[in-house]
Design brief:
The protein is α+β, with helices and mostly antiparallel strands and about 250 residues long. It has seven helices and eight strands; from the N terminus they run H-H-E-E-H-H-E-E-E-E-H-H-E-E-H. Helix 2 runs parallel beside helix 6 and helix 6 packs antiparallel against helix 7. The structure holds adenosine-5'-triphosphate and magnesium ion (MG).
C-alpha cells in the first residue's frame, strides 16, 4: 500500500499558517504591515492577554471593497502582485497573499471595512478558515480587524506560547520599531486597556522617538549629521542617544 499521500485541505492550511503565524506578535506584524500598505496615516493596536485572546488593529487606509473581502482571506490572494515580473519591483511590505489566510486559519476573525466609494461598510466573520456572516456595517473609511482566541483550534501551538506578559512585551517591542520607522504614521498602542505608545505621525523622527521613549528624550537625541547621498544612491539617517539613556538589553551601537 502506498505510504505517501496528499494532506487534506484543512491540515495543509494549518501547517501553512504555522509558517506565518508563530505567536501573537506575528499577527500584529502582519496586520500592521497591511495597514501601512493601505496608505493609513493612523493605526491603533489594542491587545488583551498578551494578544492571545484579543488583538484589534484599526487603520484609516483605503479599506477593502465588499466584493474583495472573502477573497482577501484566501491563500495566494493579493492586490500587491499580479505577475512574475512584479516580483522584481515590490514596493509594499506584503506581497505573498498569505497573512490573512494564515491568521483566519488559527483564530476567530472579525473584519469591518469600507472604501471611499462605498456608502456602507462590510462586516465579515471567519473562524478556523470557515466563513461566517457578511453584512452591512456603518463604519468610517478604513479597516478594523479583530483577532480572537489565537490557536484555539491548534492546541499544540498554544502550548508553545509564553506567559501573556512575555507575548505582550514582544508586541510592544515590535510596535516601537514600526512607529520609529514610520514617523509619518500616528501609532497608538493600548495594552490591557492602558495606553502604552502614542506617536503624532507628523513626519518628524524626533517626535516619533519622543513618543516611543518618552520624557528622557525631551531635549531630543542628537540627529545624525545631515545625510549626503552616497555613490550607490544609499544614505543613512537617524538619531542617536547619549550613553546614559541606553537601557540594558538595547542592542549596542
Ligand atoms: N488593512 C487593510 N487595508 C486595505 N486592504 C487590506 C488590508 N489588509 C489586507 N488588505 C487586502 O487584503 C489582501 C490580502 O492581505 P494579506 O495580508 O493576506 O496579503 P498581502 O498583504 O497581499 O501579502 P502578505 O501575505 O505578504 O502579507 C491585501 O493584498 C490587500 O489588498
Ligand atoms: Mg499582508
Amino acid at each position: 500500500m502506498a505510504r505517501i499521500h496528499l494532506l487534506d485541505r484543512q491540515t495543509a492550511e494549518l501547517i501553512a499558517a504555522g509558517e506565518v503565524i508563530e505567536r501573537p506578535s506575528s499577527v500584529v506584524k502582519e496586520l500592521v504591515e497591511n495597514a501601512i500598505d493601505s496608505g493609513a496615516t493612523a493605526i491603533t493596536v489594542e491587545i488583551q492577554n498578551g494578544g492571545v485572546r484579543f488583538i484589534r488593529v484599526t487603520d484609516n487606509g483605503c479599506g477593502i471593497l465588499r466584493e474583495d473581502v472573502p477573497t482577501a482571506f484566501l491563500r495566494h490572494a493579493t492586490s500587491k502582485v499580479r505577475a512574475q515580473e512584479d516580483l522584481y519591483q515590490i514596493g509594499t511590505l506584503g506581497f505573498r497573499g498569505e497573512a490573512l489566510a494564515s491568521i483566519c486559519a488559527v483564530s476567530r476573525v472579525e473584519l469591518l471595512t469600507r472604501t471611499k466609494g462605498e456608502p456602507l461598510g462590510s462586516r465579515y466573520e471567519i473562524a478556523g478558515g470557515v466563513e461566517g456572516r457578511m453584512e452591512d456595517a456603518g463604519c468610517p473609511v478604513g479597516t478594523t480587524i479583530l483577532v480572537r482566541d489565537l490557536f484555539y483550534n491548534v492546541p499544540a501551538r498554544m502550548k508553545f506560547l509564553k506567559k501573556d506578559s512575555t507575548e505582550g512585551n514582544a508586541i510592544a517591542t515590535l510596535l516601537d520599531r514600526l512607529a520609529l520607522s514610520h514617523p509619518e504614521i500616528a501609532f497608538k498602542f493600548l495594552r490591557e486597556g492602558q495606553r502604552k505608545l502614542q506617536t503624532p505621525g507628523d513626519g518628524s523622527l524626533l517626535s516619533a522617538v519622543h513618543g516611543v521613549y518618552g520624557g528622557d528624550f525631551s531635549g531630543g537625541p542628537p540627529p545624525f549629521p545631515q545625510p549626503g547621498r552616497g555613490g550607490a544612491g544609499l544614505y543613512l539617517s537617524g538619531a542617536g542617544a547619549a550613553y546614559p539613556l541606553c537601557r540594558a538589553g538595547d542592542p549596542p551601537g
